[in-house]
Write a structure and sequence with these properties.
two-stranded antiparallel ribbon; single chain
Length: 317
């Protein structure tokens, strides 16, 4: 089990702004970096490898979605805004509404200054950190309950709870996408640290502990200096591409701005995670599809839940 006294990756009270927002920024940069490495997407095996490695190393299903068809038409962050954040921030918002319709309701959003309390206006990151700390056990619970294959249940439940928690901590109704991303990405980072463990990080004064040293689940399972390497061990074309496309959920693809007819090819690629001594600790079959010249992981067919249920069941909040 991951040690409970090490679940917080940074000290909000002493270094709230630095620790909280830097860690959140790192997660955002990770997602952006995936998009910048577009050359990866021209190779089905590289696409599958990077997806699998993101999952295997830190249990990071969130950033793994940067390699999937869910990011085909919208940046993944925008996809989350459109389907999970804006309906909570803007009363009356519906995905797919026109720009004119959206503009008409924007002024009534909860991200207006009229909803800001003094606590929101003057927060230095401490209260935002408190919200993230409160949310983290619920994040772990959601991963245990749904796994990352069902991102819809994770986001819907998480952000509904976030609205309640933030209101209790700040004492107002203010709500914006930045605060929602910050809490969620902080929880993603904390979960990943619970998997890998952390090194002690000191502030500029050389004394203040921003991040404590902790022992992660994988260190307990495989030793303090463990190293996991992800490799592709098999790749094969999907033989009946028409049957494959017919089985894809049309309603889900529509939220990605695509249809099954856009897909010209598909492969099933197997990735393995192994230790330095060659011991294979996890295997994942990844379906990738080609749209134009670009390959994407088909998250509607790829199943990662067993990895979370079996390998990461020891993560606790």
């Amino acid at each position: 089990m991951a040690k409970s006294d090490n679940k917080k990756g940074f000290n909000y009270k002493l270094y709230a702004v630095i620790a909280f927002f830097v860690v959140a920024a790192i997660l955002s940069v990770t997602t952006v970096y995936a998009f910048q490495q577009k050359y990866i997407a021209f190779d089905p095996e590289k696409t599958a490898l990077n997806y699998a490695d993101t999952v295997f190393q830190r249990g990071d299903g969130y950033n793994a979605y940067a390699y999937t068809i869910s990011s085909k038409s919208e940046k993944y962050g925008d996809f989350i805004r459109i389907y999970y954040m804006y309906p909570l921030i803007y009363p009356g918002y519906e995905p797919g509404m026109s720009d004119e319709e959206f503009d008409a309701i924007k002024d009534n959003g909860y991200n207006s200054d009229k909803y800001k309390s003094d606590a929101t206006a003057n927060d230095d990151g401490t209260l935002a950190g408190e919200v993230a700390d409160i949310m983290y056990p619920y994040y772990v619970e959601l991963i245990k309950t749904y796994g990352w294959d069902d991102y819809d249940s994770i986001y819907r439940n998480y952000f509904d709870r976030f609205v309640e928690v933030r209101g209790q901590v700040f004492g107002d109704e203010y709500l914006d996408d930045e605060s929602m991303f910050t809490a969620f990405e902080s929880n993603v980072s904390t979960y990943g640290n619970a998997v890998t463990g952390t090194e002690e990080v000191l502030g500029e004064d050389g004394k203040t502990v921003i991040q404590e040293k902790s022992t992660g689940l994988f260190q307990e399972m495989y030793g303090e200096d463990y190293k996991i390497t992800t490799t592709i061990v098999n790749a094969a074309p999907v033989e009946d591409i028409d049957a494959y496309k017919a089985a894809m959920p049309a309603d889900v693809l529509e939220t990605y701005g695509i249809s099954a007819d856009d897909i010209s090819d598909a492969q099933m690629i197997t990735a393995e995670a192994s230790l330095e001594d060659g011991t294979v600790i996890a295997t994942l079959d990844i379906y990738v599809v080609q749209i134009g010249n670009t390959w994407y992981v088909d998250n509607t067919s790829t199943v990662t839940n067993p990895f979370y249920a079996e390998m990461l069941s020891g993560i606790s909040a």
